[in-house]
């Protein structure tokens, strides 16, 4: 942290200058669409999951009914982290800033807070794609052997990682619909999003929004047109990864919000007359429950 | 459709007598035992141990516990001596598990063995060296987690522990 001093900003005080630019860019917010936000008033929250399903069974005459099995499945604890930042201005520098640039500090902090929320959400997807994060079921998010409670495993990635292509989308959409519940029964979920880095954004548009079959010289229709909503991010680390994802209500991606981004307005240090503005928030992101069964993707070929 | 191949142990599904399925009973475990849900257990000197396939009698089958219900999963990693382990024990309890061979209807009523490591045990319907199990029924039709079952390879079979150490019948232990 460094204080903005009179000596460090001579240009703001010099009458020969005109203000050209204040950096107040903010990121697009694609990832926020993928997460369900849950509020909390606790230091941390533990989430659990119960699995029951499968099929009814044949009952012979006079025999007892089959007693179905219910499983306590996977637990996950989410602990909110506090994020904060402050700007401190020497009083003389603030008073003599002829363009009012320093007065934009609260605006910038507010935008940075939103960007940080976007970043932490992206980090969850990054870790899930890279396999550096262990999910509630004990394996990484995209994995060849997610355990099912009633026994056995399932994969939510191709046997061999492949780049985004019409074939990858075709096979991925079929595999997504076959992803099972804990009883090895296909969930027949409806895929909603295609999550990719910005590098693949325009390839994805060609594959998902063309009227005709992409890369084909004949008049076949594009069967994948409109099947998925493209969610691209410039800060997703793996530039050739792709993930087909379900609705936020079912995909397990969760933001546990302890305190929304708060902006503490201008405060004055009565001793030095420094001006201080700060922002803070407290939240965490993660994925819960049997969420891998609502995601199918690859790290790219 | 072929039967799903998933050897992951046994689960209690009912009773032979038609009585309500009793809950599992707590037994003292021997020290250092790894317990997996659905694995068979044996009583030695008053303590439950992981048996070998050549054991001539069995106590029962490990029940879900410690929040672990998944068949084949470890519920107690390394038991301390006399730690409680919950076991479905008794010769009236009907268990269900996958057959290691090709099951046929003529096997119903026959004594047989079990095979496999804890967590992946199966009913050895074709061998009867120790004859600890008695096949009672073959599962046909829709099942909870294996789709539709047919008689054949990887069939689900229902059985009782014929040689049960806490069985009600005088000749049930060896």
Brief characterization of the structure:
The complex is a heterodimer of chains A (301) and B (174). Chain A has 6 helices and 14 strands.
- Mean residue pLDDT of chain B: 92
Strand content of chain A: 15-25%
Q: Kindly report the oligomeric state of this protein.
A: heterodimer
Radius of gyration of chain B from CA coordinates: 15 Å
Order of helices and strands of chain A: HEEEEEEHHEEHEHEEHEEE
Which term fits the overall shape of chain B? globular
Q: Report the average pLDDT across residues of chain A.
A: 92
CATH architecture of chain B: Beta Barrel
Mind explaining what this structure looks like?
The complex is a heterodimer of chains A (301) and B (174). Chain A is an alpha+beta fold and 301 residues long. Chain A is built from 6 helices and 14 strands. In chain A, the strands form 5 sheets. A 4-stranded mixed sheet of chain A has the order 1-12-13-6. In chain A, strands 10-9-11-14 form a 4-stranded mixed sheet, covered by helices on one side. In chain A, strand 7 and strand 8 form a beta hairpin. The longest helix of chain A is centred in the middle third of the chain and has 26 residues. The mean pLDDT of chain A is 92. With 174 residues, chain B is mostly beta strands. Chain B has one domain: Virus Head Decoration Protein, Chain: A, CATH 2.40.300. Chain B is built from no helices and 15 strands. In chain B, the strands form 4 sheets. In chain B, strands 1-9-15-12-10-11 form a 6-stranded antiparallel sheet, with no helix packed on it. In chain B, strand 10 and strand 11 form a beta hairpin. The radius of gyration of chain B is 15 Å and the shape is globular. At the A-B interface, strand 4 of A face strand 1 and strand 13 of B.
Keywords:
heterodimer; A: 301 residues; four-stranded mixed beta sheet; 6 helices; flat; B: 174 residues; mainly beta; Virus Head Decoration Protein, Chain: A; six-stranded antiparallel beta sheet; five-stranded antiparallel beta sheet; globular
